[in-house]
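thought: fold this chain, then report.
action: predict
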Amino acid sequence: MVIGVKQIYQGAWNPIMGLSDSYSRHIWGVISDPGVFKHPYTGLTFPIRTSWNVETAGPDGTIDLPDDAIIWDPSQQTWKNVEADAKSTSKVTFDLLLGNWHHGQKMDMNDILHSLYFTIEWGSDTGEGDKTFDTEFTPRAIQVVNTIIGVKPLDEDTIEVYVDYWHFDKSEIADWTSMWSVMPWELVSAMEQSVIDGKVSFSRSGATSKNVNWLSLIVPNDAKIIEGYLSDFKNSNHIPSALKSFVSNQKYFESRYDASINWIQENNHAIISNGPFFLDRYSPESRTITIKAFDDPTYPIKSGTWSEFEIVQFPQIENVELPELVVRGEELSISIQTKDTTRIQYFLTNSEGNIVESGVEQVSGKQTTLTLSEEKTERFLIGANDLKVFAMSDTVLRPDIFSTSFLVVDNPTQELPKPTFSETQQSQISTNNYGYLVIVAGAIAIVMLLYVKSKLNSKKIEK
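observation:
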């Protein structure tokens, strides 16, 4: 795939506080999959690699947490059970669509729990000397951390999350609570240690204040730093604190470390994610980035899944049939023909701007008929009245709008008033017309005079 961007490198490539410019985001968007995403035409949250079931007692009620729900404790550096009487506003059960990472290792619940650990650890300020604090990331993450009450893994791809958060749209609760990871835990752990040791920083401001590099996994030198930590982890049989409670098989950790080390050595970068494409090569000299399709049978999203977004089906109002004359006090029918429309909203107003009738009609097929009773048409005023129709769709936010005016009379035989002019007005019209003729004739005469004069001058020059 070839992607043209104005600038090939505008900032650091790391998923914590990097990838902040639009150019890198365009590429990152096809090599990583989020758990949830905003619908491009409606703005609503919809699932990508996680589906959910939301239960909420909000805004005023509470939900009891199970005794075996857990939460990370930054001060004790361990997972602990929640308090016996712990309660939350909402509960979200996530079913995760896992698969393989780009380096071939299987995504698992350890990646998800380590991601939660990182958010809580770096989203908490434990006071002076806290090494897991970033001037940009921590203030942002702490907003989410303060609402997380506990989690409960149910099986290898299902987890319950309990939060003190409520929204009238349940998908927004799922978005706020989303449990997901875009990089393998071992890579995040190596990044974390390199920042704690003061070799690099997650954020631009942190890099400036500490006089170190802004961590960029696409840069070979930074990738080598990460490779070094991974090698140290492997040689020391290192198990991150966040995972000690869940797995003890040393071969599992060794295979993870080996996979990331081999990837960095082969590709000269440390961008490992889970999307439909992977970063194959970065060449700053030629200003090119090469990505290739991730042809892995475990990738869960099949080809063509997102084809519905290729052509936008905007709602359209194709025709509105309305009588030329509407008789006040008689039933009125308005036929509206639409396309790609879920519902229509309409407003009928009289000549004083007061709403006579309004409402929302669900659309079934292409034809919708609005019917106003005799009592409602009595509220029209004699003369001009207005109709405004909005065609709306559940899949696209932008509506189609139609507006028109119509005349209302007292009886069907009533003739429309014809314009009449007084003798004075007729005289003014005639005078105005005569004035226009004089102006036009004068303009023609001036043009002819200039033309003749130019001809005479040209003859003199020739002589």
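thought: worth noting. The radius of gyration is 35 Å.
final: tokens above.
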